[in-house]
Design brief:
The complex is a heterodimer of chains A (about 110) and B (about 120).
Chain A lengths: L3 E4 L2 E5 L4 E7 L5 E7 L6 E6 L5 E4 L2 E5 L5 E6 L8 E8 L6 E3 L3 E6 L1
Parallel strand pairs in A: 2-11
Antiparallel strand pairs in A: 1-3, 3-8, 4-5, 4-9, 6-7, 7-8, 9-10, 9-11
Chain B lengths: L3 E4 L2 E4 L5 E7 L5 E7 L5 E9 L2 E4 L6 E3 L9 E3 L8 E8 L10 E2 L3 E5 L1
Parallel strand pairs in B: 2-11
Antiparallel strand pairs in B: 1-3, 3-8, 4-5, 4-9, 5-6, 7-8, 9-10, 9-11
Classes of the chains: A mainly beta (about 110), B mainly beta (about 120).
Chain lengths: ~110, ~120
């Protein structure tokens, strides 16, 4: 079946550091999505990418849709304690209803 | 803005009991879906619907039923609860059409424990 590999699984960083996480797939996607999940809540959309090569920012967050359409990354600059949570990537590929989620990157930020 | 609303937030069931998780969205989205989230496994699709009257199985459909009688509602039924169904369940919706139609919006989750 389709697989979406997200890395790293977890990150322990100091407040103020930059963070980078990425997702790769064996399939070509036409949409990449990045979500954040706070404890006890549902995933909330951070950034949506719709075109290969697209680079989109949302405040301190930047994400890119890879040129090959098989990968995407999310960067967080100058991390703060409220960045703590689980970050999920998701890819949607053509051919009907099919969005696949990565296993998540758990981010810990030490003040 | 309500978005995607699911109830209950928490539920404890005994093995063999049945129950229904409710989900409603007020965004007039065509697509609705149910996911379960288990540690280290991300979000796995249980069932989905691309419109009223149309449902289909996802990755892990066994033990669950769904129906879509209206555009707004998409309940998930556990027929005979098993401990393996202890999980966090998320209802989600998306427009399904257009450039941004694949963007999925989630409810706040339902924590289910089967003992």
């Amino acid at each position: 079946g389709q697989q979406l590999n997200q890395s790293p699984q977890s990150m322990f960083i100091q407040e103020g550091e930059d963070v980078s996480m990425n997702c790769t797939s064996s399939s070509i996607f036409n949409t990449w999505l990045w979500y954040k999940q706070d404890p006890g809540e549902g995933p909330v959309l951070l950034i949506a990418l719709y075109k290969a090569g697209e680079l989109t920012s949302n405040g301190r967050l930047t994400a890119q849709f890879g040129i090959t359409r098989k990968d995407s990354f999310l960067n967080i600059s100058a991390s703060i304690p409220s960045d703590v949570g689980i970050y999920f990537c998701a890819g949607h590929y053509t051919g009907g209803f099919k969005t696949i989620f990565g296993a998540g990157t758990r981010l810990f930020v030490k003040a | 803005n309500a978005g995607v609303t699911q109830t209950p937030k928490f539920q404890v069931l005994k093995t063999g009991q049945s129950m229904t998780l409710q989900c409603a969205q007020d965004m007039n989205h065509e697509y609705m879906s149910w996911y379960r989230q288990d540690p280290g496994m991300g979000l796995r699709l249980i069932h989905y619907s691309v419109g009223a009257g149309i449902t289909d199985q996802g990755e892990v459909p066994n033990g669950y039923n769904v129906s879509r009688s209206t555009t707004e509602d998409f309940p998930l039924r556990l027929l005979s609860a098993a401990p393996s169904q202890t999980s966090v369940y998320f209802c989600a919706s998306s427009r399904g059409q257009g450039a941004q139609g694949n963007t999925i919006y989630f409810g706040e989750g339902s924590w289910l424990t089967v003992v």
